[in-house]
């Protein structure tokens, strides 16, 4: 695999985009339905939550915008389309239910914004792109779950909308480790930079020091 990746990089894939000057943090779907291993949609996300908290702390200290997403429906049978035919667990994601709440372990701030979506990408059918542009954001740091699903879809759309896209390696998680690893490779080669949380925290720390 490493040699195959190296050959692809030699052909011009995986160039570094780098963070810009006006970042925002997006925490994708670290909600109770996804972070409780006993639920049909869930898995053990504890390590990713710990790393996401480091990003949240750094983002709050730097004063940058923070968005946290959740998937929720008034009526999944009419609002989730054919996606519901693939994933029966979507039926549990009802607005106002415990499953769509952010995981209580996340160190949120009152200024953090909650984004409600119906599909994988945090951009599809939402005002996220407009909200980021209105704030002058040029860089989107992404954490959360699942790497192969909503994180990847959001990273692809962030790139498509012209944002420098940074995915926090240790702050993402998936139900399947192979899918997680391959999705990080795909994102890093084609859509954004997959960076260690340590490096992202250092970048945000530099912003805080200048502010």
Main sheet overview: 6 strands, parallel
Tell me the Rg in angstroms. 17 Å
Instruction: Please provide the ordered H/E string of secondary-structure elements.
Output: HEHHEHHEHEHEHEH
| Amount of helix | 40-55%
The protein's oligomeric status is single chain
Number of helices: 9
* Terminal Cα span: 42 Å
Any low-confidence stretches, pLDDT <50, length ≥5? none
The mean pLDDT is 96
Descriptive tags:
globular; alpha/beta; 9 helices; about 210 residues; 6 strands
Question: If you had to describe this structure to a student in words, what would you say it looks like?
Answer:
The chain has helices at 2-10, 32-35, 46-62, 76-79, 83-86, 128-134, 147-160, 177-190, 197-210, and strands spanning 23-28, 66-71, 113-117, 139-145, 164-173, 193-195. The chain has a 6-stranded parallel sheet with strand order 3-2-1-4-5-6. Helix 3 runs parallel beside helix 9 (197-210) and helix 7 packs parallel to helix 8 (177-190). Strand 5, helix 8 (177-190) and strand 6 (193-195) form a beta-alpha-beta unit. The longest helix is centred in the first third of the chain and has 17 residues, at 46-62. The mean pLDDT is 96. The chain is an alpha/beta fold. Helix content is 41%, strand content 18%.
Ordered list of secondary-structure elements with their pairings:
Blueprint: H1 2-10, E1 23-28, H2 32-35, H3 46-62, E2 66-71, H4 76-79, H5 83-86, E3 113-117, H6 128-134, E4 139-145, H7 147-160, E5 164-173, H8 177-190, E6 193-195, H9 197-210
Parallel strand pairs: 1-2, 1-4, 2-3, 4-5, 5-6
Helix pairs in contact: 3-9, 7-8
């Amino acid at each position: 695999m490493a040699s195959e990746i190296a050959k692809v990089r030699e052909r011009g894939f995986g160039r570094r985009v780098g963070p810009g000057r006006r970042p925002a943090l997006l925490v994708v779907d670290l909600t109770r339905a996804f972070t409780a291993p006993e639920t049909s949609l869930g898995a053990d996300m504890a390590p990713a939550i710990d790393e996401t908290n480091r990003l949240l702390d750094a983002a709050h200290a730097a004063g940058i915008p923070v968005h946290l997403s959740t998937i929720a429906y008034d009526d999944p049978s009419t609002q989730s389309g054919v996606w519901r035919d693939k994933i029966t667990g979507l039926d549990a994601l009802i607005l106002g239910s415990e499953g769509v709440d952010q995981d209580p372990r996340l160190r949120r701030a009152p200024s953090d914004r909650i984004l409600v979506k119906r599909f994988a990408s945090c951009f599809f059918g939402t005002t996220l792109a407009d909200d980021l542009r209105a704030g002058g954001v040029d860089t989107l740091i992404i954490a959360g779950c699942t790497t192969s699903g909503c994180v990847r879809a959001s990273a692809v759309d962030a790139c498509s909308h012209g944002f420098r896209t940074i995915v926090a390696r240790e702050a993402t998680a998936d139900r399947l480790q192979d899918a997680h690893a391959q999705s990080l490779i795909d994102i890093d080669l084609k859509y954004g930079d997959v960076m260690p949380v340590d490096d992202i925290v250092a970048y945000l720390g530099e912003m805080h020091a200048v502010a």
